[in-house]
C-alpha cells in the first residue's frame, strides 16, 4: 500500500527513516553473511524492522496516525503482488533449465558451438558456450554440466585449463545476471515496474550489454588466467565419456527450441502492439490488428510463451514421459524455483513498505536541481548498491531482488522512468546497472566461486586472481556500457 501525498510534517522525517532503511539493508547483509540466516527470513525481518521503526519514528515526533496504517496488509500485499506477476514465469523458466540440464540439451548446445568454431579458438568457444547455456540454466549448474567439455578441450588444444575455466565461468556469469528468463533479471525487471510487454526488450538489451561483459571475461582469461596454475587431475573424465551418460543426445533444434521459441513469441507479442501511427480520433494504430493482434498478444505474454517452452522441452527433449521425468524432474524444477520465488516475494514486501514511507518524497527533495543524482548518476548509484550487497552476502539473485526493490519507488525522482516510444528504456537500464553490480564480486561467500574453484583445480589465491578479479572486471565494464547507453537514451 503506497501512502501517497505525505504532508510536510511527515516528509521532514525522511532523513531519519532513510537512516533506518540503511540500517535495514545492513541487517540483511549481516544476518545473511554472519548469522547464515536464509535470505528470505533476513529480508522479511528487515521489512518489519523498517515498517515498525517508521511508525515508531512518527509516533515519537508527534504524528497522530501511523505512517504505515496497516503493516500486515502492506507486507502481504507487496509479497502477493510480486508473486502474482512473476511466480509462474520463474517456475516455467526454471523447469525449462532443469530439463535442458538433465537431458543433455545443454551439452548439445556446446557441441553445436564447437562445431561452428572448431578447436582453434578454445577460450572464445568456452565463453560463447557459457554465454548461451546460462540464459535458461543457472550458472552453477551450467558450469558443472560443461566442466568435462572444458577439461577435454584443454587436453586437445594444449590451452591452460585455468584459461578455459575463467572463459567458461565468465561467459555463464554474463547472461546469468543480465538476461531473462534467468530468474534474477526477471525479478529485477518486475520489481522496477516493467510489465509483460517490456520483458522482450529487457532480453534484447540484456543480450547487448552481456556481449562486452562476456568479452571482458574472455580477455581476462587470455591475458591473466593463462599464466595461473591448476592442480586438476589429468585423469578426469573426458567430454566424450561424459556425453555417454545421456545416451543419445537431442537434436540441435530440440535443444535450442525451448529457449528460442519463447523469445520469438515475446518478440511477436511486442511487435503486435507496436504503435505505427495515430488515427483521426487520436487513438494509436498498432502494427497488427484484429485476430492477428489477439493471437500474438496471447502467445507473446511471458507466462504463455514460457509455458509453450515448457511443453516443447517435455515433448521434444524427454525420451520417456514417465513418472521419473514428469513427476520427479518437474518436482526438482519446482523446488529450485520455490526458493527464488520466496526471496522475490520477500523483496516485494520490502518494496511495498519502502513505498509506504516518505523516503521517495524526501529523496526527490534532495536531488531536485542536482543533476549528479539523475540519469546516469542514478544508474551508477544502483550499480554501487547492488555491488555492495553482492560482495557482502554472496548471492547475485538476492542482490538483484533487493536492489531493484530499493530503487523502484525512487525511479521517477532519479530520472529513470524515461520512455523511448513504448520501450521503458530508463527502467531497462536500471535493471542492467543492477545486474552489473550483482557480478561484483564472486568470492568465498558465493557458491558459484566454489563450484568454479573445485571443478577447475584452483587453489584459493589462484581463484581470487582468476575468478574474483574477472567478475570485478566484468561488472565495471558492464556499468561503463550501461552508462554510455544512459548518456545516449536518458
Report what the structure shows:
By secondary structure, the chain is mainly alpha-helical. The chain has helices at 8-11, 14-33, 39-60, 71-102, 105-117, 122-133, 139-157, 161-178, 183-191, 199-223, 239-243, 252-272, 290-299, 302-317, 323-355, 359-367, 376-393, 396-407, 411-414, 425-437, 447-454, 460-489; strands at residues 275-278, 284-286. A hairpin with a 5-residue loop joins strand 1 and strand 2. Helix 6 runs antiparallel to helix 10 (199-223), helix 10 crosses helix 12 (252-272) and helix 17 packs parallel to helix 20. The two termini are 29 Å apart.
How many DSSP E strands? 2
- Work out the helix count: 22
What portion of residues is helical?
over 70%
**Binned strand content:** under 5%
Briefly say what this structure is.
The chain has helices at 8-11, 14-33, 39-60, 71-102, 105-117, 122-133, 139-157, 161-178, 183-191, 199-223, 239-243, 252-272, 290-299, 302-317, 323-355, 359-367, 376-393, 396-407, 411-414, 425-437, 447-454, 460-489, and strands at 275-278, 284-286.
Which characteristics define this entry?
single chain, 490 residues, mainly alpha, 72% helix, globular
What is the topology?
Layout lengths: L7 H4 L2 H20 L5 H22 L10 H32 L2 H13 L4 H12 L5 H19 L3 H18 L4 H9 L7 H25 L15 H5 L8 H21 L2 E4 L5 E3 L3 H10 L2 H16 L5 H33 L3 H9 L8 H18 L2 H12 L3 H4 L10 H13 L9 H8 L5 H30 L1
Antiparallel strand pairs: 1-2
Amino acid at each position: 500500500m503506497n501512502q501517497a501525498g505525505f504532508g510536510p510534517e511527515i516528509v521532514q522525517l525522511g532523513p531519519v527513516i532513510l537512516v533506518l532503511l540503511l540500517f535495514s539493508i545492513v541487517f540483511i547483509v549481516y544476518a545473511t553473511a554472519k548469522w547464515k540466516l536464509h535470505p528470505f527470513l533476513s529480508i522479511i525481518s528487515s521489512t518489519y524492522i523498517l515498517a515498525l521503526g517508521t511508525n515508531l519514528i512518527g509516533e515519537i515526533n508527534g504524528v497522530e496516525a501511523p505512517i504505515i496504517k496497516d503493516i500486515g496488509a502492506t507486507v502481504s500485499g507487496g509479497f502477493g503482488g510480486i508473486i502474482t506477476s512473476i511466480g509462474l514465469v520463474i517456475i516455467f523458466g526454471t523447469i525449462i533449465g532443469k530439463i535442458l540440464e538433465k537431458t543433455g540439451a545443454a551439452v548439445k548446445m556446446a557441441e553445436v558451438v564447437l562445431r561452428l568454431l572448431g578447436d582453434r579458438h578454445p577460450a572464445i568457444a568456452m565463453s560463447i558456450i557459457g554465454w548461451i547455456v546460462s540464459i535458461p540454466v543457472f550458472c552453477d549448474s551450467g558450469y558443472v554440466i560443461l566442466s568435462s567439455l572444458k577439461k577435454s578441450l584443454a587436453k586437445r588444444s594444449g590451452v591452460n585449463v585455468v584459461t578455459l575455466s575463467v572463459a567458461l565461468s565468465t561467459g555463464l556469469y554474463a547472461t546469468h545476471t543480465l538476461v531473462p528468463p534467468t530468474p534474477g533479471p526477471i525479478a529485477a525487471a518486475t520489481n522496477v515496474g516493467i510489465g509483460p510487454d517490456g520483458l522482450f526488450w529487457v532480453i534484447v538489451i540484456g543480450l547487448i550489454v552481456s556481449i562486452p561483459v562476456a568479452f571482458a571475461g574472455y580477455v581476462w582469461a587470455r591475458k591473466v588466467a593463462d599464466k595461473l596454475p591448476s592442480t586438476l587431475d589429468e585423469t578426469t573424465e573426458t567430454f566424450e565419456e561424459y556425453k555417454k551418460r545421456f545416451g543419445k543426445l537431442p537434436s540441435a533444434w530440440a535443444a535450442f527450441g525451448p529457449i528460442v521459441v519463447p523469445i520469438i513469441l515475446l518478440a511477436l507479442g511486442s511487435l503486435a502492439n507496436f504503435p505505427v501511427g495515430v488515427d483521426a480520433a487520436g487513438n494509436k494504430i498498432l502494427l497488427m490488428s484484429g485476430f492477428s493482434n489477439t493471437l500474438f498478444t496471447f502467445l507473446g505474454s511471458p507466462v504463455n510463451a514460457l509455458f509453450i517452452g515448457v511443453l516443447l522441452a517435455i515433448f521434444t527433449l524427454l525420451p520417456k514421459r514417465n513418472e521419473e521425468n514428469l513427476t520427479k524432474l518437474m518436482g526438482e524444477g519446482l523446488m529450485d524455483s520455490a526458493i527464488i520465488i520466496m526471496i522475490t516475494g520477500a523483496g516485494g514486501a520490502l518494496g511495498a513498505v519502502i513505498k509506504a514511507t516518505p523516503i521517495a518524497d524526501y529523496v526527490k527533495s534532495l536531488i531536485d536541481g542536482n543533476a549528479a543524482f539523475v540519469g546516469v548518476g542514478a544508474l551508477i548509484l544502483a550499480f554501487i548498491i547492488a555491488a555492495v550487497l553482492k560482495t557482502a552476502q554472496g548471492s547475485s539473485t538476492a542482490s538483484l531482488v533487493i536492489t531493484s526493490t530499493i530503487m523502484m519507488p525512487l525511479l521517477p525522482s532519479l530520472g529513470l522512468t524515461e520512455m523511448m516510444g513504448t520501450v521503458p528504456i530508463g527502467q531497462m537500464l536500471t535493471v542492467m546497472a543492477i545486474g552489473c553490480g550483482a557480478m561484483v564480486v564472486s568470492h568465498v561467500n558465493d557458491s558459484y566461486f566454489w563450484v568454479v574453484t573445485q571443478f577447475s583445480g584452483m587453489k584459493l589465491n589462484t581463484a581470487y586472481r582468476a575468478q574474483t578479479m574477472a567478475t570485478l572486471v566484468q561488472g565495471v565494464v558492464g556499468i561503463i556500457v550501461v552508462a554510455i547507453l544512459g548518456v545516449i537514451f536518458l
